[in-house]
Amino acid sequence: MRPLRVRDAWVTSLQPHHDDRGKFIEWFQKDPLLAATGRALPLAQANVSVSRRGVLRGVHFVDVPDGQAKWVSCVAGRVLDVVVDVRVGSPTYGQFDAVMLGEGEWRAVYMAEGLGHAFMALTESAVVAYLCSARYVAGRERSVNPLDPDLALPWPDDVERIVSAKDTAAPTLAEAEELGILPRYADCVRLGATT
Question: Of 57, 112, 143, 161, which residue is the least packed, with the fewest Cβ within 10 Å?
């Protein structure tokens, strides 16, 4: 596992095993995560999303405390996966890192509680699987607009974007900070969500 530019986010390469039947991929192992981050990922919920080409989901995060750490991988198709530091007071606040996930780029991304997550489907269909440390609670999920010009996330220009009404209406990072809906880095530190 190697750290991303965003503090408390890592990426790991996955090793597919091929034979005449197809492929097999171990997409999560507890020990390498614990060794790299000093944290385990308590499993509370597992999600799968299926998106068509151009679907842009995020930037989503969950209120801290308690927050929601995630282990994310694309198990079919390809996506551009983005982690955004939305934690006010973090050394990497407002920064992002982007990773290609899926066919040909077998990787997984881990992000600690308080970080924002987004992705865009780049193939006709893309299946993203998430392991989450906390279950989904509608009233605790927040969003920052994935097209915030100040964030300037690296979405491809040659893919027609499909963005939900909720994500389109989400505030920019600066507006979210003014509204007081962003996690505070100090709260993440107290939660133990940082290394």
Answer: 161
